[in-house]
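Please check this:
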Amino acid sequence: SKYQQYLYHNKIIQPFKQVFREYYPVTEDERNAGNVSRRYAGNQVQPKKTMALLKTCGWTSDYEEGLQRVWHKENLIARMYALADWFSPADIEAPTLETIQFFSRDKYELVSFADIPPVIFSETMRDIDLAVSVAHAGGVDPEASQSTVEMRIAIARELLSMLSVNNVNFLTAHAQIKGSLGEYSVHMGSGVIHKSGTGMIAVLPVHSQARGRIFIPFADDDPKTAEILSKILLFADDKKIKDPSILGQIK
């Protein structure tokens, strides 16, 4: 957007993610369901860590209904259901998330997603996505959430535009790079790099000193985003790579 471009070109650092804040619109499945979301169904979380994290976002635990966040001004209650005892959370068995629903505070009636203010819906889903990412259990990949990938792609587009790099395109969750020595793919969630016709390329994460050269338009500590941006820039200009361990894998 123009706001994102303005921040990036003028190197304005926000105190927290605002213009680049992750946005969660209602999905087609949720729109068809009407008032129940299953976008996180099947994800397992560590109950203690989930409780601690969501508490900082304004969530509380209801003995009968599970975890909930009350939006007082909007007269709404967001509830996340899972088979878990949030009052005495034990990490013996990770609970599996089930559904998310909204209720009116006064009548305690289910509210359709069509009647939920977009910002309230997005912030609710952002809270839960954060919990799934940070307090995940089992095989969940916290770096691969759709919102995180979309945020990184938005930042990468602005960075590449500012640096006049025009040999990088984005396809779903990957940055597709056409270098001088080959074509590469960088996953915007994990940062894993593949070279076409060769396979995975092992590249050590960029050290913190080097990460400072990559401008991130918000003050939140996000080393993974800086690492991924650094890798994209590195392979977009692969003819300048001097690291023998990398050259041995791409030549």
Residues 146-250 form one domain. The first strand starts at residue 44 and ends at 45. Confidence is low (pLDDT under 50) at residues 207-212.
